[in-house]
TrEMBL record:
Cell division found in the keyword field: no
InterPro entries tied to this protein: Glyco_hydro/deAcase_b/a-brl, NODB_dom, Polysacch_Deacetylase
Chief subcellular location: secreted
Record SUPFAM superfamilies: Glycoside hydrolase/deacetylase (SSF88713)
Region span, Disordered: 251-283
Keyword check for Transmembrane helix: no
Keywords on record: Signal
Record-given protein name: Polysaccharide deacetylase family protein
Pfam families given in the database record: Polysacc_deac_1 (PF01522)
Coiled-coil ranges per UniProt: none
Domain NodB homology: 54-179
Length: 283
């Protein structure tokens, strides 16, 4: 399953991690053509893949909570060339392709709009708000206590502005795991406890099915949105989407029933666990 990672969406990209609004739209249109339907990181972690039969899930993730991802205009809606503005436009043009994504935020998120206003809009409109630590800290260099505090305070900042938000997804700054790695899953600091269902790395390769034995909630790989060129071409979204569409990797395909997990009985492959509310269903 592709978990795509985006950073800034700029007319003039400043780094290899940035894309233009036109790049983003072209990649989303490709996902439409190739039968993908977005789900959130939280949906993926829990195995709640509620998309039409025959569709392939994709997780769209945005790191760092920049204004290029979400800026609300005078009408209270995302500006046209912001990441969420582009995503919603593609979804309007292709109703089966839903405007769903997970935005991993730091403190003082979406400064031009204001964190509280931006996060409130995201929650109201069905987007997942994930944690990216309070200060984008390198957790491996922070020490145990500071690493826990960065995660807990990032979560507290979100819940302070949008009470009732269930923050269960964490993207590791720089993709660097703390020591020990499971510190990112559970912990507490200054009275705030966190329990993440999924912890996300930086771009690498497609993620395993959430029902596979290889699924590791503390180290979920993501694919960096990028063209298939240069020294990192084999890590790019263009490369991996090509591999998936060519059948060189088996894509997760929905059976249309989120309460069951279907699998081909003639391959010898069997999911490592069942759906949250149902059973395994061979076909």
């Amino acid at each position: 399953m592709p978990v795509l990672m985006y950073h800034q969406i700029l007319n003039r990209p400043k780094s290899a991690y940035d894309r233009t609004p036109e790049d983003l739209r072209a990649e989303l249109e490709r996902l439409v053509r190739e039968g993908y339907v977005p789900v959130t990181a939280g949906d993926y972690e829990t195995g709640h893949i509620d998309i039409p039969a025959g569709a392939h899930p994709v997780v769209l993730t945005f790191d760092d909570s920049t204004d290029s991802q979400l800026r609300l205009g005078a009408d209270g809606q995302p500006t046209k060339n912001s990441a969420i503005g582009v995503l919603r436009a593609v979804a309007r043009d292709h109703p089966r392709f839903k405007a769903r994504a997970t935005l991993f935020v730091n403190g003082d998120a979406f400064a031009a709009t204001g964190q509280k206003k931006a996060l409130t809009w995201l929650k109201k409109n069905g987007f997942e708000i994930g944690n990216h630590t309070l200060d984008h800290a390198n957790l491996a260099q922070s020490g145990t206590a500071k690493a826990r505090a960065q995660i807990a305070e990032g979560q507290r900042s979100i819940v302070r502005d949008v009470p009732g938000t269930d923050v269960r997804s964490l993207a590791l700054p720089y993709g660097i795991q703390p020591e020990p790695a499971d510190l990112a899953l559970t912990g507490s600091a200054s009275g705030t406890a966190y329990k993440n269902r999924g912890v996300y790395l930086v771009g690498a390769n497609p993620a395993p099915s959430p029902y596979a034995d290889s699924f590791d909630p503390a180290a979920i790989p993501r694919i960096r949105s990028a063209p298939a060129k240069g020294k990192d071409a084999n890590y790019s979204s263009a490369h991996w989407l090509g591999q998936l569409s060519a059948g060189k990797l088996a894509r997760y395909t929905s059976d249309g029933d989120p309460d069951h997990v279907s699998y081909p009985k003639d391959t010898g492959a069997r999911p490592g666990k069942t759906a949250p509310k149902g059973d395994l269903r061979p076909y």
